[in-house]
Amino acid sequence: MEQENIYEDEIDLKELLYVIFKKWRGLIVCALFFAALAGGYKFMSFSRSDAEETAREEYEKTLEDTDRQKNDLEAQINSDETMLEIIEEYIANVNTKRVSAEDLALISDNMLSVQNRLKSNTQALEDLMDQEEPELVIPSSGAAKYTVLGFVLGGFLGVFAVCVAYLMSDKVRNLKELQRRFKLKALGNFDSSKKRSFPVDKLIDHIFGVKEARPYEEICGMVAANTANYLGRDSRRVMVTGSASAEDIKKTAEILSSQSEGTGFLNVQHKPDFICGELISDPRTVKALASCDEVILVEKKLVSSMSDVEDELTLLKNLGKPVTGIVLF
């Protein structure tokens, strides 16, 4: 029967944002690359002679349309004026006694309609004459606009790539992630990353609360103190193992052994023995677990994987071995 996966894999948005901002140099380079690519393509594909010819054709077409519209309005005005003169002459010579009131009303309406149309066309012609003559404008290549668009697109694609790489990665990134996902006690963090000196990097570290790494000796003391606090009172044999390198595992065991010199291991009544070995790949380590009371896991940042830690915890759970805590290098 397949064992149920009890570990929750959550996304730390703050950590994701920090990873994105840490890559600001690469994101800017990516954005500049796409900006140069888009702007260069648009500039190289632009032909000034073709653009000038197209602009001249549109300019001449605009002039033709304006002249045609002007001629149409003048013809309509002349027609309306002629029609208005005919109506006025007819009204002046007609015998009103022989024309019905309905016909007079119709003639009056037609005359008013012609007058309104004449006024409207005259105003339209005046507005058209007042317009400035269009200028011949040769369009630019538009490379600047494409450069800006390419920069934005490149930045977006860069951020998208960082997010995908972050979400697809199974590597251990920090101690908090191990604590949150596997509910493990933190014994110590030997992560050697230091606060960066460049102003932008310093600002990013300040915003996200990145602290300066503690001195090595202080971390060794914290590992020993935490181990002593979390160890069981009757634990005499402790296995130091994990998916970190054999050198890091051995170093952790030596640190704990050196810190336990004297009449006791801090508040532990009996001095425990610390043995080390690779848990997953070494069958001798698995065999030696039978005689161990507790286990300390040692993992390596960006080397150990979450799946390896999960396999280790599953094996220890099946063997009934409690985990004291975890040390991260």
Polypeptide structure, described:
By secondary structure, this protein is of the alpha/beta class. Among the domains are: 47-130, Helix Hairpins, CATH 1.10.287; 216-328, Nitrogenase molybdenum iron protein domain (Rossmann fold). Helices cover 61% and strands 9% of the residues. The chain is built from 11 helices and 5 strands; from the N terminus they run ααααααβααβαβαβαβ. The protein has a 5-stranded parallel β-sheet, sandwiched between helices. Helix 11 (306-319) links the parallel strand 4 (294-299) and strand 5. Helix 2 runs antiparallel to helix 5 and helix 3 runs antiparallel to helix 4. The chain is rod-shaped. The two termini are 35 Å apart. The relative contact order is 0.12. The model has no long low-confidence stretch (mean pLDDT 79).
What is the element layout, followed by pairings?
Blueprint lengths: L12 H10 L1 H22 L2 H46 L7 H30 L12 H26 L6 H8 L3 E4 L9 H9 L8 H15 L6 E6 L3 H14 L13 E6 L4 H6 L5 E6 L6 H14 L3 E6 L1
Parallel strand pairs: 1-5, 2-3, 2-4, 4-5
Helix pairs in contact: 2-5, 3-4
Tell me briefly what this model is:
This protein is of the alpha/beta class. The chain has eleven helices and five strands.
Query: How many beta-strand segments?
Result: 5
Instruction: Enter the CATH topology name of the domain at 216-328.
Output: Rossmann fold
Q: Please tell me how large the radius of gyration is.
A: 43 Å
Oligomeric nature of the chains: single chain
Distance between the termini: 35 Å
Strand content: 5-15%
Helix content class:
55-70%
> Helical stretch count?
11
Structural class: alpha/beta
Which CATH-level-2 architecture of the domain at 216-328?
Answer: 3-Layer(aba) Sandwich
The overall pLDDT average reads 79
Question: Uncertain spans, ≥5 residues at pLDDT below 50?
Answer: none
Biggest sheet descriptor: 5 strands, parallel
Q: What gross morphology would you assign?
A: rod-shaped
CATH superfamily of the domain at 216-328: Nitrogenase molybdenum iron protein domain
Going across the biggest sheet, name each strand in turn.
1-5-4-2-3
